[in-house]
Amino acid sequence: MSKRETWLLDALARVLEVERSQLSATQSFAEMGVDSLLGLRLTRQLQDQLGVEVDLEWMFDHPTARELARFLDQRFGDMDAAAPAAAGAAA
Question: Is 91 exposed, middle or buried (0-12, 13-18, 19+ CB in 10 A)?
Fold first, then answer.
């Protein structure tokens, strides 16, 4: 599981107010109970993390955490590779 996939599932758990262990990377956002309002909350967290505009439609085009993570890694770079720079910036 990639770092971005893990981050997405952790963010989803916070948004849905459930334990992370209840979520699966291959379960659709709709099956998890993500509606448009919760989707907006998640995209806001993504925008904060990425520092760029995130389109809610991406969640519909890539309807699982695994698919969305792969899309985001392709579009913005692999979070695994970017982790050291992000950690250094936070320090």
Answer: exposed
